[in-house]
Every structure is written in C-alpha cells, then in structure tokens.
Amino acid sequence: MTRAIVLFSAALLLVAGPSLAQSPQPYAGMQTRPLKALSGDELADLREGRGMGFALAGELNGYPGPKHVLELAAESDLDQQFSGRTIAPVSLTAATAAIGATQGALRATHLKYHLAMMEVLTPEQIRRYGELRGYNAAAAAGHLPGMHNHKK
To answer: Does the predicted TM-score (pTM) go above 0.70?
Structure first.
C-alpha cells in the first residue's frame, strides 16, 4: 500500500510539475520596479498627490473627502454663476469667501498632519526626507525647519 502511494505521488508530480512551473507567479516582474512595492500607477498617484484609494472606507460610507468637497461644491457654485451669467458683486464676494473658508480649513487639516509627522519620525528620518525632497542645503546642515522642536 505504501509503495502504491509513493508511485501515485511520483506520477502526480510528473503530470502536475510542468503546469506548476508554468503557472503565473503573483510577484513575477515586480523585482524590476524602481520601488518594488509600488506599481507605476501607485507611484504616479503619490507624485500627483492623489489618494490612492486610502480613504475608500470613508468615501464609500458617506464621509466626504475635503479635497472633493472643495472641488465639487465651492468651486462649482462660483463656476455656475459665471457660466450662467448670474454673478454679481455680492454673490462673488460670498462665493469666494466660502471657497476661502473651505481652503483654509483644508489647509489647516493638511498642515496638522505635517506637524504630527514630527512626532512619528526620528531626526535622521526627517533629515533623509529633506534630502530626498531636494532640500539639500538645509538637510546637509542638519537643520530642517522644526527639527529643534522634535521630541523623540
């Protein structure tokens, strides 16, 4: 009985072996990427400041994204007034004030997370970030803005 199992296993390997070797591997080709863990689309998303789908849990469950609110609501109202030729000095002032308030809130939210990075990264990581971003003079001197306040 044991000999039958061994023979069956050997026959199975002979038959399945070539098909296993030819099956596509999930990571084949990724070793040639500039950044191995990121696809070309993901790199483009990062370079362009797109969300990469990171906020889908919020977006698809009814939580508006701040960038999208700005794009869709405030700017579209101003655009509609101009395109419909209904713009007047009072409505222009109101629309641009609303856009300014939305942009201010968005900027404060965005900068809050820049500030939070100072608590997450080490001074060496902050120096390296500056170097990678092209802030070489400050990075080379070891004096990026905010480094003196770092609490790590």
So the answer is: no
